[in-house]
Amino acid sequence: MAKAGRVYHWKHGWIPLDSVALAQVARKRPPLAFQVPSEPVHKPPTPVRRIGDLSPGLQEKIRAKMAALTGIPEPELAARVQDNLVRAVRNNPGHEDWYGEEGSDLAERAKQVGTTQERFTGMVAVTSAEKRWVENKDFAQKIAAKLQADEPFKLSQHDIDSYNHWVAHRNGVAVAHPDLKPGTYRPSQLPADIAASKTPGMPKAKNTDAVIKAARIYRGEASLDAVIQGPKQRSFVDNLMDPSDDRFVTVDTWHYRAAMQGIPITRTVKGQTFNYTLEEWGDRDLARADGRAAAAGFDPTKPVGKKGPNIKALMKAADNQNPQTIFQGSPSSVSDHYESGMGTYPWFVEQTQKAAEKLGMSPNAVQADAWYAVGGGL
Amino acid sequence: MSWTPLDPYSNPGDGSPPLTGAALIAEVAFHKQTARLNGDPIDPEWDQWLADDESATGILAKLRTR
């Protein structure tokens, strides 16, 4: 049982660890003492499926959603999207080998930090939230470098108590370690969650779970198949690891924009129906002009400002009408739940593959060119 | 290289989505406390995360007025 120590509260400073927190720590206590697995625990990966392997009912549901969103018969819509992608590539060639070049860079970085390309690519993928690409690679490399250096550091009772208190009050992948004793440890001698949280100089993420997952991948405690979630992230890793495999397409916000250029989408907001392109849905001036901003609480007599209710209303009316909301039914941080009927991921994959066939290119090369065509990039 | 591709249509979770509101406040407090205990610098970016998060700034404003 953990000692009733002190914890540091962000507002109140040092306070006694309360009984509620201790009970929560006890509940989250791992069943066994920490032990680094001698061999990575990998489950056999699921066989890769193509879109055609999904059930006919699900495929039909996704096609029907695309037709309903646009009011265009699905075969005609598919042809227009393919034309958009073909045009984007023809107008913006030169980035076809993006995945090959970046995969090589990841392999080189992996060597520098003593790991494999596969593991390092997984580390990059799990730490990608809200980061630009170069920043993302550097961040993963810093985590790996800290784990590779494996420098010993002092872990005090305060460190342990604060960690256990933090874990007790959050939902995530970290678990409490109430039996851990103060001492000097190398990160490799500690469980990945506390090593990721407490190692001096370890990069900090908005959600520490990302760093913990990256540490588990580096240490071979988690397979990519177990940790990388959602069709976009899994396809991104597949593209980086083997750009020659044409089964996978990374459908991100830029790809939705490239695919849907000039194609209006019908949505009803607060009882009013609008028919706009993706660009128009995200246009704040248009949202003010057509009443969507007012419906979201925008007050035209007051300045927009950088903070406060007016900018919040504008963002709700325009910025939040982004491709993920429209095509996945959820914010960009949430993966496409295509199987629930909310998402459309496989449909965009299919159109990209067909556009690639027309161009005689790989689908990921089409996506890379189209990405630059609509303003994506590093 | 013996790469076994990941099936895009399995493991459909949401990764580690960015935290918001009270959860983000707690995460930043933990980062700061850990940095102080380790003698690491406090990264100004952590406060920026809070400033950029409407729900976190709302909670902090309410606490300050108590």
Q: Could you explain how this protein is built, in words?
A:
The complex is a heterodimer of chains A (378) and B (66). In chain A, the strands form three sheets. In chain A, strands 1-2 form a two-stranded antiparallel ribbon. In chain A, strands 3-4 form a two-stranded antiparallel sheet. The model of chain A is unreliable at 29-43 (pLDDT under 50). Chain A is mainly alpha-helical. Chain A contains 19 helices and six strands. In chain A, helix 4 packs across helix 5. By secondary structure, chain B is an all-alpha fold. Chain B has three helices and no strands. Chain B has helices spanning 21-38, 44-52, 54-65. In chain B, helix 1 (21-38) runs antiparallel to helix 2 and helix 1 crosses helix 3 (54-65). The longest helix of chain B has 18 residues, at 21-38. The chains are: A mainly alpha (378), B mainly alpha (66). At the A-B interface, helix 5, helix 7, helix 9, helix 10 and helix 11 of A face helix 1 and helix 3 of B.
Offer a concise description of the structure.
The complex is a heterodimer of chains A (378) and B (66). Chain A is mainly α. Chain A is built from 19 helices and 6 strands.
Which helices and strands occur, and which strands form pairs?
The complex is a heterodimer of chains A (378) and B (66).
Chain A: E1 6-9, E2 13-16, H1 19-27, H2 56-70, H3 74-91, H4 98-112, H5 117-126, H6 133-149, E3 153-155, H7 157-168, E4 183-185, H8 192-198, H9 208-218, H10 224-227, H11 231-241, H12 253-259, E5 265-269, E6 272-276, H13 278-281, H14 284-289, H15 292-295, H16 309-319, H17 323-328, H18 345-359, H19 363-373
Antiparallel strand pairs in A: 1-2, 3-4, 5-6
Chain B: H1 21-38, H2 44-52, H3 54-65
